């Protein structure tokens, strides 16, 4: 059994890691998926910030 820097247990962990995270079974995430996700998150963040500022400025409306 080959050891990784003198730690034989690490080899077993590395060998079983593929079963845990499905090594190679996920399709690679495209750049457009993450850009769309970031844009949606940014829009929601800006909308929430605007709502909170409006509620702070006009508390009698709430």
UniProtKB/TrEMBL annotation:
Keyword annotations of the record: Membrane, Transmembrane, Transmembrane helix
Region listing for Disordered, in residue ranges: 1-29
InterPro entries with a match to the protein in the record: KdpF
Superkingdom assignment: Bacteria
Residues that span the membrane, as ranges: 39-57
Pfam assignment, any one: Potass_KdpF
Protein name listed in UniProt: K(+)-transporting ATPase subunit F
Classification of source organism: Bacteria, Bacillati, Actinomycetota, Actinomycetes, Micrococcales
């Amino acid at each position: 059994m080959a050891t990784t820097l003198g730690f034989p247990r690490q080899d077993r962990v590395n060998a079983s890691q593929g079963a845990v995270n499905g090594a190679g079974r996920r399709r690679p995430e495209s750049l457009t998926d993450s850009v769309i996700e970031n844009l949606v998150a940014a829009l929601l963040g800006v909308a929430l910030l605007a709502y909170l500022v409006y509620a702070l400025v006009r508390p009698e409306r709430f």
